[in-house]
Specification:
Blueprint lengths: L1 H18 L20 E6 L3 E2 L8 E9 L4 E8 L4 E9 L5 H9 L3 E3 L12 E9 L27 H24 L1
Antiparallel strand pairs: 1-3, 2-3, 3-4, 4-5, 5-7, 6-7
């Protein structure tokens, strides 16, 4: 009994050490706010009907798209009848694994299989919308533009819940086995 208990504990610890998966945290560098656009203006419309990713509605107003860098694009839409605009952050997702894409989707990003229908290159993208104030003087600024509220992506889902539960279960099993071993002495 004593030898079996020791072997069980050793095997359990061995399993615990070598079976844990690495945590995967995905991060996206910050996108510039539409109130202070950066990058190269790719396209700009002062009026017209536009689409916003994740919505089937038509949006009337101005729309400007900025190429921030090789992998990031920012779309800035301002409606013609209101002050709240929609900023859409786009980044190329072709090099991401399925688990990374799921992590982003959990954080509110939308997976787009091809950017071609949105006027971007023909490759996968992830996109996320944020509201921002594009007109008005509600904050007292003279130019009528205020910076979008900072958006926090939150804690990244690391996908290792099962591993953590396995560790906790293994610890409990080891504790009870050591208790039984001590009791048998």
């Amino acid at each position: 009994m004593k030898r079996l208990t020791i072997v069980t504990i050793v095997l359990t610890l061995f399993y615990l050490i070598f079976s844990t998966a690495q945590a995967m945290a995905v991060s996206v560098s910050d996108f510039p706010a539409c109130s202070n656009p950066q990058g190269t203006l790719v396209v700009g419309y002062d009026s017209g009907v536009h689409g916003i990713v994740g919505s089937t509605s038509e949006y009337k107003g101005s729309d400007k798209v900025y190429q921030v860098d090789a992998s990031k694009t920012t779309q800035c839409f301002c409606p013609s009848d209101g002050t709240t605009g929609i900023q859409t952050d786009w980044f190329k997702a072709g090099n991401l694994s399925q688990d990374e894409v799921k992590t982003y989707e959990h954080d509110g990003w939308t997976y787009i299989p091809t950017g071609k229908i949105w006027g971007l290159s023909d490759e996968p993208y992830l996109a996320k919308n944020h509201d921002y104030t594009c007109k008005g003087t509600s904050n007292g600024t003279s130019n009528g533009v205020v910076e979008a509220a900072s958006a926090v992506l939150g804690l990244a889902s690391t996908g290792n819940t099962i591993t953590l539960l396995s560790i906790a279960s293994t610890g409990l099993v080891a504790f009870f086995l050591s208790f039984l071993l001590r009791k048998s002495k």
